[in-house]
Amino acid sequence: MTDLLVRTAPAGTGTGPAVGAGLSVDDLHASLNDPALTSMTLLNEITGRFPEAVSFAAGRPYEGDYAPEALHRYLDRYTRHLHEDRGFTPEQVARALFQYGDTKGVIADLVARQLAVDEGLAVDPTSVVVTTGCQEAMVLLLRALRRDPRDVVFAAAPTYVGFTGAARLVEMPVRQVREGRGGLDPGELAAEVRRARAEGLNPRACYVVPDFANPGGATMSTADRERLLRLAEREGLLLIEDNPYSMFHDGGRRPPTLKALDRSASVVYVGSFSKTAFPGARIGYLVADQPVWEGGLLADQLAKIKSMLTLNTSSVAQAVIGGMLLEHGHSLERASASSAEVYRRNRRAVLDGLARRFPDPAAGVRWNDPTGGLFVVVTVPFEADDSALEVSAGRFGVLWTPMHHFYAGNGGQRQLRLSVSVLTPEEIDVGLDRLKRFVADRSG
């Protein structure tokens, strides 16, 4: 313990041990030096230093509909649900709100109803584990899947840093699979699985965001979803489907979720109320209905891990989300309709604004055209790295996210992500004007 807490001065200084206790990051888990864990800290630090900059960096949800009085209304609605619909006595209602709750959650039945209403999913509430945000769901699942150093998981390139960070915490290597305009390519995944097995590795799972993925914005076709499911069944691969953005579409018919198409229990469905309700509740969940030979479901095994991690998810926070679901007929699509309209408006404003400011394809500036979600990816003719972001924020007053943070290795060096979620149309215009000046300065 002494060696951990007291650092010795460099050889030859003659000063002996350093005064006072201290730690080196080298003494701690290797993940703390991993870019997946440091990228958000970097972005928050730059944002904090340039508060006047227009920020396309934040992936936070729209805040215009937040009303503190709604929290009280939702809590009251859930309390009445316990008393009137479930027959709880006043003492039982108080205990449900104030005491430790079931490790798997107290609103699993309401989550199951929401999935039936919005996604056409028939989910047994016993297969649901309500978690402290989506991040906990990922950690629980990856911790359960990681048995020995040969185990690996796959994810699209680029992919959400929260997943790669969670994998790093449990020492599960992530092998990235090229993402095309239609999302993760099942053919590329099959090749990567074969390559991993040839190297003596054990493919366990693949993380996929089929609808308006963060950060690339791609959506998988129904045909590719079916191909991916057949591949998973053939290879014994678990699919981790993350679905935070599917409600935020352009109004067309949404393709079915992977879980809705799943006939072989190949998909663990991960959900979150952060974007569709509000992130302050920190309520996520997973549906893990895979049977376990020794009895029960994978959800039961994940609950064992949760009991040693967070014990249970806040009953009060669950009650607020439960009340929101009850108030909107168990539909997140209805509950988030006004936010979805803001995202549609802002996404169109960003795409149209880019087209007006960069009309010449020969200039080397191009972008994708997502049909939903919160993000647009712009390709530029220069290195869009962290130092470029510093210049953009300090000299030009506009923030964005370097895409290289979403690659576990090389990739995205000349791309930046624009978030459309929290800005007004007027702020978008100002921000894009500043982005145009920044691009012109770097390109010249």
How large a portion of the residues is in β-strands, by DSSP E?
A: 5-15%
How are the strands ordered across the major sheet? 2-9-8-7-6-3-4-5
Q: Kindly state the mean pLDDT as a whole number?
A: 92
Number of strands: 14
Distance between the termini: 56 Å
Oligomeric category: single chain
Total of DSSP H or I helical runs spanning 4+ residues: 16
Radius of gyration: 23 Å
Tell me the series of helices and strands, N- to C-terminal.
HHEHHHEHEHEEHEHEHEEHHHHEEHEEEH
Q: Residue ranges: pLDDT <50 for 5 or more in a row?
A: 1-19
Biggest sheet architecture: 8 strands, mixed
Please explain how this structure is put together.
The protein has 444 residues and is α/β, with parallel strands linked by helices. The protein has 16 helices and 14 strands. The chain has helices spanning 2-5, 35-49, 68-85, 90-98, 108-119, 133-145, 161-169, 186-198, 222-235, 258-261, 298-309, 315-327, 332-335, 337-357, 386-396, 425-443; strands at residues 54-55, 128-132, 151-157, 174-180, 183-184, 202-208, 238-242, 267-272, 283-287, 366-367, 375-379, 398-399, 401-402, 415-419. The strands form three sheets. Strands 2-9-8-7-6-3-4-5 form an eight-stranded mixed sheet, with helices on both faces. Strands 10-11-14-13 form a four-stranded antiparallel sheet, covered by helices on one side. Helix 6 packs across helix 7 (161-169), helix 6 (133-145) crosses helix 11 and helix 14 (337-357) packs parallel to helix 16 (425-443). The model is unreliable at 1-19 (pLDDT under 50).
